[in-house]
Amino acid sequence: MSDSLDSDVSEETSSEEFSCPRCGRTVVESYYGPCSSCRTTLRMTVTKDAVDVDDAEYVPKMNVTPNAVATKD
């Protein structure tokens, strides 16, 4: 039983020859998409550093009234 599972996994990850959708070169990769050199280029040019964003405190609009039960003293 495990032999059939192992063969299914190896068939799914076998390398295929296709044309890179980004640069058009013929490559042999496990999955369809940009080739490894295009992926490296994309990682270098597209990534950004994370920044902290300060959110302003929520202030409800004037037409929003508080719940009468919530404000009951």
Describe the structure.
The longest helix has 11 residues. This protein has 2 helices and 2 strands. With about 70 residues, the protein is an alpha+beta fold. About 10% of the residues have low confidence. It has a domain of about 35 residues. The protein is elongated and about 70 Å long. The chain has a two-stranded antiparallel sheet. Helices cover about 30% and strands about 10% of the residues.
Quick overview of this protein structure:
By secondary structure, this protein is an alpha+beta fold. Helix content is 30%, strand content 11%. The chain has a domain at 10-46.
Number of strands: 2
Q: What is the rounded distance between the termini? A: 69 Å
Tally of DSSP helical segments: 2
Structural class based on helices, strands and sheet pairing: alpha+beta
Shape: elongated
Uncertain segments: 5-10
Strand order of the largest sheet: 1-2
- Report the order of strands and helices: HEEH
Cα-atom Rg, whole angstroms?
27 Å
Strand content: 5-15%
Specify the biggest β-sheet: 2 strands, antiparallel
Give the averaged pLDDT, no decimals.
Answer: 79
List the helices and strands and how they pair.
Elements: H1 2-12, E1 16-19, E2 26-29, H2 36-46
Antiparallel strand pairs: 1-2
